[in-house]
Design a protein that fits this description.
The chain is an alpha/beta fold. The protein has helices spanning 7-35, 45-50, 52-67, 71-88, 94-110, 116-144, 232-240, 275-288, 309-318, 365-377, and strands at 152-161, 166-173, 187-193, 199-205, 215-220, 246-249, 266-271, 294-300, 322-328, 339-341, 358-362, 385-388.
Amino acid sequence: MLSQEARPYIEASVPVLREHGLTITRTFYRNMFAEHPELTNLFNMGNQASGAQQQSLASAVFAYAANFDNPEALAPVVSRIVHKHASVGIAAKHYPIVGRHLLGSIQQTLGEAATPELLSAWEEAYGELADALIAEEKKLYQASKMEPGYTRDMRVLEVKDQSREVRSYVLTSVDGSRLRPFVPGQYVSVAVVLPNGLRQLRQYSLSDAPGNNQIRISVKREAAGEETPAGMVSNWIHDNLKVGDILPVTPPFGDFTPDTEGAEPVVLLSAGVGITPMISALNRIASLNPEREVIFAHAARSAEFHAHRDDVAAAQALMPNLKVVTFYESGAQDQGEGVKSGRMEVAELPEWQRDGANVYLCGPIQFMQAQWRALVAQGVPPVRIYREVFGPDLLEDLS
C-alpha cells in the first residue's frame, strides 16, 4: 500500500506521463542497454527497433499511475506481465537495474520538475510493483519447477506451410522425456542465436491440442513494413529451421486460456495469425466434447493468408454443432458457403445467447478493439469477453 505522502505525487504524475511517457521510456531503454548490454538477450530487440516496446512501457507506467488504487483494474495487467516475464526468464536480480534506470530517466527527462519528493514517491511505487511482480513470478517458476531462463532442447519433427505467411513446426523432447502439460491458449518462448551473435527469445502460441508428447507452434514470417523492420526471429526460423534441427524452448506460459473443458456454448473469434491459440482450443474441444456448440469465426486478407484451414475442416467433420464463418477482405466470392466479404462483423455471426457464452478474441489490437465494441453493443457482458494480445500490450483498456 502506497504511503499517504507518496499518493499525491503519483496522482500528479498522470498528466506528466501522458505528455512525456514515451520520452522517458526511450531514455530508459537507451541508458539501461548502454550499461547492461547483456539484457539485449532478454528484451525483444525487434520491438525496440519499431518503438513498440517503448510505447508499451510508457502505457504500463501511465496505467499504474492512473490505477494504483484500483487493484481489480491492475490485476489482469499484472497477470499478463508476470507470464511474459517468466517466459523470457526475468529474475528478481533484474528489478533493481530496471528501477534505477527508470528513476534516472524520469529525472533526466523532467529536469527540475523531478523534485526529490516526486522521485521518492516513484521509488516507493516502483518498489511495491516490483515486489508484487517478483512474488507472482516466483509462484510461476515454482509451479513450473524451473529456474528463470530455463529452456529445454526440442527436436523438429515436422514442418508444414499453413498459409502464404505461416509455417508450423511440430516439436518433441530430444531425450524422449515427457513434456510439461499446457492449456490451449498458452504459448512457449523459443530461443535463437542470430548471425550477429544476438540471442533472442520469441513467444509463439501452441497451435494444437495437448497430447502425443509433442507440441506445435505456428510462426508468421514478419515482413518489413513502412515504419517497422522485418521480424528478425520469424524470418530466421522460416529460412533456417528444418526437420531434425534442435530448438531451445521454455515451458508453457500465458493466462489466456479459453474454456475447453466445459459444456456451455463458446465463441472463438480471430484474425490473422491470431487463429493459432484458437486452433489449439478447437482441436481440444473436438477431441473432448465434439457435441459442444461452438462458433468459430476468422478474418483473413484472402484464402492464401488463411492458416490452419485443414484443422478447421477436420473439426467440422467431427463436430455437428460447430458453426464456422470466415471473412476475407478479397476473393470471398470464390470460396463457397460460409465465407463472407470484408472485415469481421459481429452482426453477421450465427446467433447465440449473448449472456450465455464466453467469447474469446485474438488478433491485431485494432481487430480486438472493434470486436469488443461490437460485442458489447449487441449485449454481450464485458465479463464474458476475453482476449489475447501478441506483442507489447498497449493497455488501452485502462485509462
